Amino acid sequence: MVVGELAYERDLLIIGGGPGGYNAAIRAAQLGKSVTLIEREQLGGVCLNKGCIPSKVFTHAADKLYSYQKNEQLGIECDTLTFNYSKLEKYKNKIVDQLRQGVEALCQSNQIELLMGNAFFLSENKIGVEKDEQYEIYQFKNAIIATGCSPKSNKLFSKLDSKKVLNHWSISTVREVPDRLIIYGSDYITLEMAMSFRAFGSTVSILLDDGKEEFPFDPAINRELERILKKKKIAIFKGVIKEVKEDGSAVMIDVVRKESVKTIIGSYLFVSNHYIPNTKELGLERIGIQIDQDGFIVTNEKCQTSVNHIYAVGDVTGGEQLAIKAIKEGKVASEAISGIPSEIDITNIPTIVRAVPPIASVGLTENEAIESGYEISTGQFSLNGNGFATLIDKKEGLIKVIIDKKSQLILGVHIIGEGAVELISTGIHALEMIAREEDLLFPLYPHPSINEGLLEAIEALSGLSIHTAQRKKSKEIAQF
Questions:
Q1: Domain ranges in the chain?
Q2: Is the pTM of this model over 0.85?
Q3: Which of 122, 155, 200, 452 is deepest in the core (most CB within 10 A)?
Q4: 357-462: CATH topology
């Protein structure tokens, strides 16, 4: 292919149209920049097309199925309940298409130039864009890399039939509800898929990854989560993998724990993957952009790379593989390019799990707070004491608050139960504003609502929660 010498001049070039890329593009356009956004597949990136949105369609359907089972007590009666997985798949595709079209419309309304193709650096101020037989060169003042990541295969399962092994991208495209589904992992997607496919009719087994003994949440959340999983008849296995094999249509995993061997059998295996950055074809070596030992692009608090006029945002920079991080970084990068003193700080980034019920947390867990040297107090409130949770029959879960005894500063908020994702914003604001116990005690909370559970968790720090039954003192304590 003959490379032309003509280079089209552009102000800001963004490589990658996922959450980080398109948010960066729109923010830059809002700030008066002329923006060109390059995407090789589909706008919205993995989050919209293969990850976040498809998985949340599944968890939404699962929640509806679980809720339907309780409708009769409300007078909502139906003789039979059927679940059509193919219709759910069509609905998922419809939602994804609708949201992608929305992103395209936003880009158009902000006069963002969209280019489809593979982009790679030719020099510190030139990018080549290739699509089919077409090749063009663009010269730029600034660039943002937002190319994301791809799932990294796990060597433990390399000998299995690839059609039986699902990852973050393929789990939402499986064409049938697995009869028996093994899920290997402990992160948010592990729990979302476990509860979704259990609701759809699969027999589900979770094998915690890397020999872990618990999920990565606060101990109180972990205890409640395991209770809920067992109630839903989702088996939990803890241990180290001894052998992985396949027999016809079945996947079998032998797990060793405390000298005991158990075999897990499934028709499909979902593996919660690690990720590798999508940088291989970018030509970063040509321009000397610094990467870490795992290949992720190194950036500063402004999302600036080692080449000052080139920025990088989202999963390609490592750390938490979350859309909220990419979105914030995209905005910060565009603001920094536009001369605004903006920077990223993900200290108080929340953990969100759209399971049934959902989980949300921010800040330090009890163990982390103690390990950090804090002398702590904890307040906990069970949602079975909340009036609104009782009314809607979603009483499973709890809210836990952790504070520093000395300063009364809020250190962490952890929630499992209805409304957790929405309510955690209060916890995020509390940590960002360096709030104390009194700052969350003082406001009025809407009644009836799940919000009152947070107030009662704060009150529980001093033993003043109204809707918590007080424990009877033992005779020894009473006599003392």
A1: 7-151+275-337, 154-272, 357-462
A2: yes
A3: 452
A4: Enolase-like; domain 1 (3.30.390)
3-state SS of the chain is CCCCCCEEEEEEEEECCCHHHHHHHHHHHHCCCCEEEEECCCCCHHHHHCCHHHHHHHHHHHHHHHHHCCHHHHCCCCCCCCCCHHHHHHHHHHHHHHHHHHHHHHHHHCCCEEEECEEEEEECCEEEEEECCEEEEEEEEEEEECCCEEEECCHHHCCCCHHHEECCCCHHHCCCCCCEEEEECCCHHHHHHHHHHHHHCCEEEEECHHHCCCCCCCHHHHHHHHHHHHHCCCEEECCEEEEEEEECCEEEEEEEECCEEEEEEECEEEECCEEEECCCCCCHHHHCCCECCCCCECCCCCCECCCCCEEECHHHHCCCCCHHHHHHHHHHHHHHHCCCCCCCCCCCCCEEECCCCCEEEEECCHHHHHHCCCCEEEEEEEHHHCHHHHHCCCCCCEEEEEEECCCCEEEEEEEECCCHHHHHHHHHHHHHCCCEHHHHHCCCCCCCCCHHHHHHHHHHHHCCCCCCCCCCCCHHHHHC
Shared fold status for 7-151+275-337 and 154-272 = yes
Q: What is the pLDDT of residues 245-255, one digit of tens each?
A: 988 789 999 99
For the domain made up of 154-272, give the CATH fold: FAD/NAD(P)-binding domain (3.50.50)
From the options 3.50.50.60, 3.40.605.10, 3.30.360.10, 3.40.50.10190, give the CATH code of 7-151+275-337.
3.50.50.60
Instruction: Show binding-site residues for NAD(+).
Output: 185-192
Active-site residue among 274, 309, 429, 447?
Answer: 447
The pLDDT tens digits for 115-147 are 999 999 999 999 999 988 889 999 999 999 999
pLDDT at 477 over 50: no
Q: Is 60 among the catalytic positions?
A: no
